[in-house]
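Progress note, sequence design subtask.
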C-alpha cells in the first residue's frame, strides 16, 4: 500500500475526523446517518439506518439517501487513490445507474469491492494525462442478506492542470 493511501485510511477510519469531514463537506450525508463500517484498499462498506432525515412519506429510506450511501462506498475508494497524489488528480461522477429491488425500512449496508479497478483507472489517468473513466458497482444488502438495490457509479479521473 502506498503511504498516501495508508494516511487516508487512518483519517477516514477515525469516526470523529470522518464525522467532522462529513458535517463540513457532505452535510446531507451526515444528517442522513451514513456510517463508514469498513474500508481497505479493495473494499468499502457504508451503512445507513432509517432516521427522521432520510425517510420518505411511505416510511422507507428515500432513494436519494440510498444513492448517497452507494456513491460514498465507491467515492471513498476513489478519494483514497487520489489523496495527496502528485500530480494532483480530480474525480467526478459522470453517470449513475440504479435498480431498486426491495423497499428499505431497516438498516442497509452498501458494499463496493472495486478498489483495484479504481486504482488502475487513476494510474492510467496519471500516465496518459487523459480523462479515464471507471464504473464501480455498489450493492445494498439488508440484514437478511437480501439485495435491496444495485448501483453503478461511473467516475472520471483526470490529472489537474497546474
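Output:
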Amino acid at each position: 500500500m502506498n503511504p498516501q493511501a495508508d494516511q487516508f485510511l487512518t483519517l477516514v477510519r477515525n469516526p470523529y475526523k470522518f464525522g467532522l469531514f462529513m458535517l463540513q463537506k457532505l452535510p446531507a450525508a451526515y444528517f442522513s446517518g451514513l456510517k463508514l463500517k469498513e474500508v481497505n484498499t479493495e473494499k468499502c462498506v457504508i451503512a445507513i439506518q432509517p432516521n427522521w432525515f432520510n425517510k420518505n412519506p411511505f416510511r422507507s429510506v428515500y432513494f436519494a439517501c440510498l444513492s448517497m450511501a452507494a456513491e460514498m462506498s465507491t467515492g471513498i475508494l476513489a478519494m483514497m487513490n487520489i489523496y495527496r497524489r502528485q500530480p494532483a488528480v480530480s474525480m467526478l461522477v459522470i453517470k449513475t445507474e440504479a435498480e431498486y429491488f426491495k423497499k428499505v425500512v431497516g438498516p442497509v449496508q452498501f458494499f463496493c469491492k472495486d478498489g483495484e479497478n479504481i486504482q488502475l483507472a487513476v494510474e492510467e489517468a496519471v500516465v496518459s494525462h487523459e480523462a479515464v473513466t471507471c464504473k464501480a458497482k455498489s450493492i445494498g444488502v439488508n440484514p437478511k442478506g437480501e439485495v435491496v438495490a444495485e448501483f453503478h457509479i461511473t467516475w472520471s479521473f483526470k490529472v489537474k492542470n497546474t
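Strands lie at 35-39, 44-48, 89-100, 108-112, 132-141, 147-159. Work on this subtask will continue into the next period as scheduled.
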